[in-house]
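Per your request, structure below.
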């Protein structure tokens, strides 16, 4: 492996608008936001082990962004699907 890219991962966020619906999909720690009426709202939730630890109360939410597992994807954790109206 090229040492210059060691530790790098892949993240993706996509959005598709159809009529009045917005479909958003993402993988990893990429995020999708909605900017409406001067307000910015995060639509997605990070798929990382650190975020999962924060979700279940094992670490404070503010620590998830700098936790040692912040880049580890939760591939091995149970999948969950979210849906919300925007």
């Amino acid at each position: 492996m090229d040492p210059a890219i060691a530790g790098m991962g892949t993240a993706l966020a996509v959005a598709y608008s159809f009529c009045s619906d917005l479909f958003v999909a993402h993988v990893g720690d990429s995020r999708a936001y909605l900017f409406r009426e001067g307000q910015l709202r995060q639509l997605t939730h990070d798929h990382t082990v650190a975020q999962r630890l924060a979700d279940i109360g094992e670490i404070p939410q503010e620590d998830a962004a700098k936790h040692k597992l912040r880049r580890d994807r939760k591939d091995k954790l149970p999948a969950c699907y979210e849906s919300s109206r925007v």
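Residues 48 and 73 are 4 Å apart (CA to CA).

Regards,
D.
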